[in-house]
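Protein chain data
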Amino acid sequence: MRLDLVERLRCPRAHAPTPMIVLATETRDRDLVRGEAGCPVCHLRARILAGGVQFDGALPGARSGTTPGVARPATSPTDDRAALDRLEALLGLSEPGARVLLTGRYTRLAAALARDVDAAVVALNATLAASEGSASVQLADVAVPFTDATFNAVALDDDLPAATVADALRTLALGGRIVGRLPLERPADVKELARDSEEWVGEKATASAPPIPLRRA
């Protein structure tokens, strides 16, 4: 996992937002390859192996980008290339250095997307082979374990729990691009830019959390 993303890991449990404390045992260029992370509040632990993060209680490969019990058709390299080109365009990834969150069926494009546009790509609840620039995060929680405004772009599959959709939006920067697979409904604080029979594309238009009131002394 890219080091700038590791610094933004946050405990997914329901207590005050708390950054994870990370102990690195192996780094390579811009990536953390091996290490451990822990929450100082609830003591939740996570292992970092081959660049991927696995939280305590996660079921490795249980979701792997698909809904349990639902078979999805295999795709050819040509189909994957077309899907990759479409996703890059919908997410507006024209410049290198973006941070991208992929869910569900989109996670199969994580490694290729990271190579194509030099992005730091996170695949949520998926099993990925080790690859520079892309990493998987596996957890037994509906939360997305990153701090607010971590990602520049997010792709959401149609079978995500509502709580995961809301939390993914929290981790998206203001003005960030979001792609939703129909029939997933567009969140109210996302400005719709386009849609077709398969997906809608939007932009985060407002902050997810209410503003903090300022008081004079």
